[in-house]
Specification:
By secondary structure, the chain is mostly beta strands. The chain has a single domain, classed as Pectate Lyase C-like (3 Solenoid). It has two helices and 32 strands. Strands 1-2-5-8-11-14-17-20-23-26-29-32 form a twelve-stranded parallel β-sheet, sandwiched between helices. The chain is elongated.
Length: 311
């Protein structure tokens, strides 16, 4: 019976992530534009033309060269930016602004771009919906990707050397697959929001791999959380996590605990997950007031949690 429950949950997470990618706008939309920033052209000028057009969007912009600008996509629908030959969008605000802001816009897709610097690399905010595919977001003073009151689908992206690789807050929703968060201070920060992920690698961040707090909800499948300077996954203040695995999530080699559960938290493990070989002991730590940890018998490492107990 337990095996059937695990398989059903695996199928649910895979369905959520794969369906999200299936339902996004297809590769190209509407009118096509080409921007060669090395020739003095700008993405901003094209976006203004699109905003003043009859459709308020429905366009694909092919981007070439290094675009030194802070891009605002506001009140537009179905705009796709596709990078070619290493196309880059580079901050010019001296790290005080977003490099790319998506505000009050729907079905915005960023593909094959390198986005460098800024206070925020990419912001999807104020009831927007965004997709990111095969992008590199690096060297942001704050978050590489910031999500607030919006939905983001992320596939095959790298968030590198930011203060926080990805920040999800204020009811935001992130569906993430095959992403890498590396070299940041915190890999993923989830504050009162939802993070569903499959196959991500979260490694070599100087503090937490994942920190979830203030009623955050996590569903994780087949993750690798390793070699982070602090705790691999920190679950805090009335947050929940459900591991739904095909082959299992691995949490190892972190400088703190592999995973810690603090006040009023709930974790359900699949039975295939391993939490072992972390510097901080025990590997799975339960502390504070009222936590629930279930199905932990096969994690492989040490724990002070009493399986299924409430404290």
């Amino acid at each position: 019976m337990k095996k059937l429950e695990i398989l059903a949950t695996v199928a649910y997470v895979c369905l959520v992530v794969s369906s999200a990618f299936a339902d996004r706008p297809i590769n190209r939309a509407g009118a096509s534009y080409k921007v060669d920033c090395d020739q003095g052209q700008t993405i901003t000028a094209i976006l203004k033309a699109i905003a003043n057009g009859p459709n308020g969007g429905h366009a694909t912009i092919d981007v070439y060269g290094t675009c030194k600008e802070n891009v605002l996509i506001q009140k537009l629908d179905r705009v796709i930016l596709v990078g070619h030959n290493g196309a880059t969008i580079q901050d010019v605000s001296n790290n005080t602004n977003y490099v790319v802001t998506v505000d009050l816009s729907t079905f915005i897709d960023l593909q094959n771009l390198t986005i460098t610097g800024g206070f925020i690399g990419v912001g999807c905010i104020e009831m927007s919906s965004c997709t990111m595919e095969n992008d590199v977001v690096q060297n942001a003073l704050g978050a590489g990707l910031h999500i607030a009151r919006s939905n983001v689908i992320s596939n095959g992206n790298t968030f590198l050397n930011d203060s926080t690789g990805v920040n999800v807050q204020n009811g935001g929703i992130l569906l993430s697959q095959s992403d890498t968060m590396s070299g940041n201070v915190i890999g993923v920060n989830v504050l009162g929001a939802n993070y569903t992920a499959a196959g991500n690698v979260i490694q070599n961040n100087s503090r937490f791999g994942i920190r979830a707090y203030n009623n955050a909800t996590l569903r994780l499948s087949d993750m690798t959380v390793t070699n982070n300077g602090g705790t691999g996954i920190s679950l805090e203040s009335a947050s929940t996590i459900n591991f739904s695995d095909g082959t299992g999530t691995s949490i190892s080699g972190n400088g703190g605990h592999g995973m810690q559960m603090l006040d009023q938290t709930n974790a359900v493990f699949s039975g295939l997950d391993t939490i072992s070989g972390n510097t901080g002991q025990p590997d799975l730590y339960c502390g504070g007031n009222y936590w629930v940890a279930t199905n932990i018998a096969n994690i492989g490492g040490t724990t002070n949690c009493n399986p299924g107990a409430k404290h």
